[in-house]
Each structure stands twice: as C-alpha cells, then as structure tokens.
C-alpha cells in the first residue's frame, strides 16, 4: 500500500528539471571548435567596434550631437546584447557545456528581451532624429535638446525593462515536465515556455502583445517616418545629399527588424519543421546587428570615420 501510494504521488506530481539543455548546430559537433572561432571573431568585432564608437563620441565634443548621442545608445545596447549571449554560445562551442539552470536561463532571457526592446526603441528614435533633421531642419536644435534626449533615453529604457520584467515570473510559475532541450544556444521566452506542461495561454498572449507593441509598432512608425522623409526629399534639389544621412540607419533597421520578424514567424509556425533555420536565424538576429552596426556607421558617416582614422593615427 505504501509503495502504491508513493508511485501515485510521483505520477501526480509534475516534474521540474533542474536545468535546461541549450542547442548548438546539431550534426556539426566535429567542427564545433572551428565554429567557435567564427563566433569569437564576431564577438571581438562587436565589442571592439561598439567600444570604439562610444570612445570616439565621448571624447570628441564635435560629435556631441543628437544623431551621435542616439548612436552611442545603440552601441551600448549592442554591447549588452553581445555580453548577454556570449557565455552560453561560447560555452557550447568551446567547452561543450549545454546545461543552464532555470534561474540563470530566466536572467539571460530577461536581459536579451529587454535589450532587444530597447534597441528597437533606439532605432525608432534615430528615425525620428532623421525625420526632424530633414523635414524640419530649422527647429532641429530646439526640438532635440540634451534634456529632451535624456528623457527619451530614460523612457525607452523603462519601456524595455517594464515589458521584459514579467517574463521570468510568468515562466517561474510553470512546471516543466517535457523534454527540456531548448531550441537555441541561449534562452528566449518563446523557446522556454514551450517546455512547460502547464497552460501557456497567458504567456502566449503576453508574448504576442510585447512583439506587436515593440517590434510591430516601432517598425510601423519607422516606415511612416521614412515615407515622410522621402516625400520631403523629393521636393528638394539635393536628393542624394539628404538621403545619404539616412543610409546607415536604413541598414541598421534592416539588420535588426528583418531577422527579428523572421525568427518570430519561424518560432510560431515552423518550430518543429525548420530547427536548423530557427537556430541560424537566432544567431543572425542577435549576433549580426551588434557586429555590423559599428562597421556600417563607420563607413557611411564621414565625420565619424574621420574621427576614428584620426584616433588610430595618434
């Protein structure tokens, strides 16, 4: 009777694993060391590139303008994203360490999601900056004053943190009794909640809400700002010169939003059908923008490129 009671209690109790298992590129374990070299190079370029951008903007008073202040916000966010994903990705490919505790996973996904929301907001502010600079240049300095820029930065920071803050607590209340193998080399809310054996309706609704209210809303407002910019540019003679100031931001927007939207679609509608595609899109979404943004802005911004060359010569 005692044995039957114990077995019944065990069967009725939902099992919560102590760890999650992260996923690398399956079937390529023999070349993990070579893959790790690629990731290390990407992280070095990202960290060094964004650090150089921040150093140049901070030390050069001529770059203390709204456009470059927003660029420094983008660089800080990209540094944060690189640091948030680096331990688990390099842990898998360098040390074959796939295990991550629940609490560590929840902390990582909080920082990844909050920083992603902040980056989306920064790109929106940069679009607003270009909109004011081109469509209303005479009021540019009076609209984007340092106090107002500071308030904008605080608002986007609070928005990102506030939207990501409930995620660990929504996941903490679940019991995880299914296979605990995540679909990425790092923790994401969508990936973790599918491991739960509880009702995830609330999480799914909130996940859709934050995607629509951040990536969806921000991308729509950026699109509207570019429509207004294009309309204004077509009415002036110096088309090329006006549009050249938007090229860097246009590239940064595409680098961030296209992989992000694609990853969300694959996670929701092709989770089991395209595992490799999902993993690769996850890498592109979180690793490529922090690496490419400093390169793009350094190449496309004449003033920034000149300051970087001058600093290297010294």
UniProtKB/TrEMBL annotation:
Annotated keywords: Cell membrane, G-protein coupled receptor, Membrane, Olfaction, Receptor, Sensory transduction, Transducer, Transmembrane, Transmembrane helix
Main location per the UniProt record: membrane
GO CC, alphabetical: plasma membrane
GO MF, one annotated term: olfactory receptor activity
Record flagged with keyword Cell membrane: yes
Coiled-coil regions, chain positions: none
Transmembrane segments: 31-57, 69-94, 106-128, 149-171, 208-230, 242-264, 276-297
UniProt-listed InterPro entries: GPCR_Rhodpsn, GPCR_Rhodpsn_7TM, Olfact_rcpt, OR51/52/56-like
Residues covered by the G-protein coupled receptors family 1 profile domain: 49-297
One GO-annotated biological process of the protein: cellular response to lipid
CDD domains: 7tmA_OR51-like
Location(s) in or outside the cell: Cell membrane; Membrane
Membrane topology according to the record: Multi-pass membrane protein
Name of one Pfam family that matches: 7tm_4
Keyword Hydrolase (UniProt): no
Family to which this protein belongs: Belongs to the G-protein coupled receptor 1 family.
Protein name per its UniProtKB record: Olfactory receptor
Gene coding for it: LOC115641954
């Amino acid at each position: 009777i005692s044995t039957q009671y114990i077995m019944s209690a065990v069967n009725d109790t939902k099992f919560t694993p102590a760890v999650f298992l992260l996923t690398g590129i399956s079937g390529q374990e023999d070349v993990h060391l070579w893959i790790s070299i690629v990731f290390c190079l990407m992280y070095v370029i990202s960290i060094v590139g964004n650090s150089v951008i921040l150093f140049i903007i901070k030390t050069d008073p001529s770059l203390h303008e709204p456009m470059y202040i927003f660029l420094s916000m983008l660089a800080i966010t990209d540094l944060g994203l690189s640091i948030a994903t680096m331990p688990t990705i390099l842990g898998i490919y360098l040390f074959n360490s796939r295990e991550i505790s629940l609490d560590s996973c929840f902390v990582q996904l909080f920082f990844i999601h909050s920083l992603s929301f902040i980056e989306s907001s920064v790109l929106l502010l940069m679009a607003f900056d270009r909109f004011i600079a081109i469509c209303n240049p005479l009021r540019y300095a009076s609209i984007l004053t340092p106090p107002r820029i500071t308030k904008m930065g605080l608002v986007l920071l609070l928005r990102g943190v506030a939207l990501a803050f409930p995620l660990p607590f929504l996941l903490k209340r679940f019991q995880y009794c299914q296979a605990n193998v995540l679909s990425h080399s790092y923790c994401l809310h969508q990936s973790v909640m599918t491991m739960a054996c509880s009702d995830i309706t609330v999480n799914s609704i909130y996940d859709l809400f934050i995607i629509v209210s951040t990536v969806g809303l921000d991308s729509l407002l950026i699109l509207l700002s570019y429509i207004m910019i294009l309309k204004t540019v077509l009415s002036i003679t110096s088309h090329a010169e006006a549009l050249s100031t938007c090229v860097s931001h246009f590239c940064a927007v595409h680098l961030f939003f296209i992989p992000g939207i694609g990853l969300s679609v694959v996670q929701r509608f092709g989770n089991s059908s395209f595992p490799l595609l999902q993993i690769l899109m996850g890498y592109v979404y979180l690793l490529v923008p922090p690496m490419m943004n400093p390169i793009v802005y350094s190449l496309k911004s004449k003033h920034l490129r000149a300051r970087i060359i001058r600093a290297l010569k010294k």
